[in-house]
Design brief:
about 40% helix, about 250 residues, 2 domains, 10 helices, alpha/beta, 2-enoyl-CoA Hydratase, Chain A, domain 1, 6-stranded mixed beta sheet
Length: about 250
């Protein structure tokens, strides 16, 4: 398949698998991405996901051959938007593990994830204006949130690339490592997340994801709702019990 999912315990590894086309998004990729995300979201045993890609390019964006052939509408799904992911409503943490270039729609896909591990060779960018196009898959508003307005405006209007190290310095990227270390680093980050109660992680993530969009009153309500969502669960009882018994908690995700 153009996008594949592999399960490793509570971890889902989702892979863009169209390296011969620089993982450019076509209709098949959008549909299989949506299916993989459905499987990830619907399986209670999967707690964290990693999104990676085969080949030297994470994603070059939209497949321009498909657009030229009049198939542009197929590059988005009704539920997920471009690539089956950029407008997708998710509840579980998703880490982008990027070893190659992530430009145009590829940059927008990386910005739709919660966390980013990048390589020393990775560059990000929205070069659409260089081709008289508009980045319409979230990059024009997610990039300013991730980098700050001044830098984002410069990148958006010039179309110039941003090295991963600079993206790290500005807060868009969590860590920059050698290309061969990216997946291992992403797995270590996933393990750190999965050491915590999964339902509490999801509830906390869902509030934090709205922090730069909603007003304080809405976020207070969401925080209270998130807390109430875990009260009464088995894990809510397990956390204090494990602390009292001086042992690691055993989470069930329910």
């Amino acid at each position: 398949m153009a996008v594949e999912i592999e399960k490793q315990g509570h971890l889902a590894i989702i892979t863009l698998n169209r390296p011969e086309a620089r993982n450019a998004i076509n209709g098949e990729m959008a549909q299989t991405m949506e299916s993989c995300l459905d499987e990830f979201e619907n399986d209670p045993e999967l707690w964290v996901g990693i999104l990676k890609a085969e080949g030297t390019v994470f994603c070059a964006g939209a497949d321009l051959k498909e657009i030229a052939a009049g198939n542009g509408a197929a590059l988005a799904t009704r539920k997920g938007g471009f690539g089956g992911i950029t407008r997708r409503e998710r509840t579980k943490p998703l880490i982008a593990a990027i070893t190659g270039t992530a430009v145009a729609g590829g940059c927008e896909i990386s910005l739709s994830c919660d966390l980013i591990i990048a390589s020393t060779e990775t560059v990000f960018g929205l070069p659409e204006v260089k081709r008289s196009l508009v980045a319409a898959a979230g990059g024009l508003f997610r990039l300013p949130r991730a980098l700050g307005m001044a830098t984002a405006m410069e990148l958006i209007m010039t179309g110039d690339p941003l090295p991963a190290q600079r993206a790290f310095e500005l807060g868009m990227v969590n860590k920059v490592v050698l290309p061969e270390q990216v997946l291992g680093e992403a797995k270590q980050l996933a393990e750190r997340i999965m050491a915590n109660a999964p339902l509490a992680v999801q509830a906390s993530r869902n509030v934090a994801a709205r922090a730069l969009m909603d007003d304080d009153e809405a976020l207070w309500r969401a925080s209270g709702k998130g807390f109430q969502s875990v009260v009464g669960t088995e894990d809510y009882q397990e956390g204090p019990r494990a602390f009292i018994e001086k042992r690691p908690p055993v989470w069930k995700g329910k």
